[in-house]
Specification:
Blueprint lengths: L1 E5 L4 H12 L3 E6 L2 H9 L3 E4 L5 H9 L3 E4 L9 H19 L5 E7 L27 H6 L7 E7 L2 E3 L6 H12 L2 E4 L5 E6 H14 L4 E5 L2 E5 H12 L3 E4 L4 H5 L3 H4 L8 H7 L8 H6 L11
Parallel strand pairs: 1-2, 1-4, 2-3, 4-5, 5-6, 6-10, 7-9, 8-12
Antiparallel strand pairs: 9-11
Helix pairs in contact: 1-7, 3-4
Length: 302
């Protein structure tokens, strides 16, 4: 199959692309600049020039593809409304392009906020819909395209997709620890944070492309919930820093923007996804990756 991927040069997309290439698919990746273009070419991916703001370019690539995997997103916390509007416009464009074709349309979503405080599952519908909702209400909109002859599938990723080279939430939290000289956790540290190894997540996406039915939700979650205390302890051990509790009311001041997320209790199951796809996470867990020094270490560099 010829698969068009937005975000193909990114942290998750680059791993997904290699899974698909290994399975014999041709991967076409959105390239927003010369650096991305060269990176895609070097990885055996066919570059297609364009960006999330260039709907015509993406439409052209989607029309020529046997399926679309949309992983790119404007992670701009200073303009979340604008990012959501861009996401909704992109989803609408893909819906119009793929309508009545039965082609697969897989798109990135997340598990945070689905069912705070209890174990969320694939049966839980996202509570956000409409243009003004977070991420532009994209998940609810895209899943509705199952009624338009599109095999739409929500790829719900854990908030931490970890591994060597990750610069996401864990790197930010570890960076704060280095700056403050202490490894902090929020409150009593009981809040739970789901995670998945990058290689396991990529394998799940490849399986979802092959097997997931229209209108389904699949969870890229390898560990249902690691406590923030356990995460902070691992960061502290890796960096040689003391462990300290941060009162919830001080989390934003201590952690910065990441403080609004780190204290969330969002355990999430992937049991139904594993049964549906025949997927079993096998790679290292989050604490093991932290202990490996992927997020900072007290050891001097060589």
């Amino acid at each position: 199959m010829r698969i068009f991927i937005t975000g193909a040069s990114g942290w998750i997309g680059s791993a997904v692309s290699q899974e698909l290439i290994a399975a014999g698919h041709e991967v076409v990746g959105l390239a927003r600049n010369d650096e991305s273009f060269a990176k895609l070419q070097a990885a055996g991916i066919t570059p297609h020039r364009g960006s999330l703001d260039d709907l015509d370019s993406m439409r052209e690539a989607a029309a020529a593809a046997d399926g679309v995997i949309h992983l790119a997103y404007k992670h701009d916390f200073s303009d979340m409304a604008g990012a959501g509007a861009t996401e909704r416009a992109t989803i609408e464009m893909f819906g119009d392009t793929l309508a009545d074709s039965d082609r697969p349309f897989l798109f990135a979503s997340g598990v945070a906020g689905i069912a705070p405080g209890r174990l969320a599952s694939e049966d839980d519908a996202v509570p956000f819909s409409g243009p003004e909702a977070p991420r532009g209400g994209a998940e609810a909109l895209a899943l509705s395209y199952a009624d338009r002859g599109i095999r739409s599938v929500a790829l719900r990723f854990a908030p931490t997709v970890h591994g060597e080279g990750d610069h996401g939430f864990m790197q930010v939290i570890s960076g704060v620890a280095g700056e403050k000289g202490v490894s902090g956790y929020v409150g009593d540290g009981s809040s739970r944070w789901p995670a998945v190894n990058r290689r396991d997540a990529a394998r799940m996406v490849a399986l979802a492309l092959a097997k997931a039915p229209a209108g389904s939700r699949v969870h890229a979650v390898g560990e249902e919930g690691i406590s923030s205390l356990e995460i902070a302890a691992a960061i502290g051990d890796a960096r040689g820093l003391p462990l300290v509790s941060i009162p919830p009311e001080d989390a934003a001041a201590h952690f910065g923007w990441i403080g609004m997320f780190f204290g969330l209790d969002v355990p999430t199951s992937s049991a139904r996804t594993q049964d549906l796809l025949g997927w079993t996470p096998t790679h290292a867990g989050l604490v093991a990756d932290i202990q490996s020094g992927f997020y900072g270490s007290s050891q001097p560099s060589r």
